Amino acid sequence: MGGSKSILANWRIIIAQILFLLLGLGLIEYIVRAEIVGPLYLSKPTQVIDEIIGLFTNGIIFHHLFVTLGEFAAGYVLSAAAGIGTGLFLVLVPRAESFFRPFLSALLAVPKVTIIPLLMLWLGIGLSHKVAIVFLFCFFTIAFNTITGIKQTADNHLKVAKVFEATKFQTITKVILPSAASTIFVSLRVSAATGLVGALFGEMIASKDGLGNLLVQATSTYDTAKAFAIITVVTIVSVLIIAIIDLLEKRVVLKWKSY
Question: What pTM was estimated for this model as a whole?
């Protein structure tokens, strides 16, 4: 009985959210049609939908989408591996953390946007440039959250592992990482969104391909509807990436809990 009530409540929330979204889109449609706001500054949702359909129908979007996703995936995977590895190393070697943490904090404080021109000078405007940008946008968030998560591991769990004479590898894989999993996955979700923004930003500055370059083309010709269509596609892609990470989290956490 309680389960059915919970499901009903969830459906009510979903319906309310859909109605709220439709109301907002309807209001924007009215504002533009009534010329309260000019079409140069805001586009009708119906026109944006037509643009999205057109982008996928003529196939223009697919090449740019695959380029952006490739850049994002490479930078994101590298940053996740390096961030988790760095966080784990610094916690397990306290002297290393004491030595390197000030440098990491200083690098974290540097605005990433200011480094992009230097990366262009060092790496050119190809794939490595975008991958490096995504890496910088993601690495520090993952590393610091990994450190925080690992430090929250309960002392009792570590003592039990020691009593059962667990090896260092077993302690890491069956005690430390499972305890820090929730915090690590929070950073992976946040970094997924910022990493995608980093890839787009790099493409907007210097690239011949990608969704960022496509967005620059739309804005440079004052094609507001197309610009909003590309932004909508990027938003949907970002939501899907985060959904995949959520699914991965459930599977990983459940697997660790089954040990």
Answer: 0.82
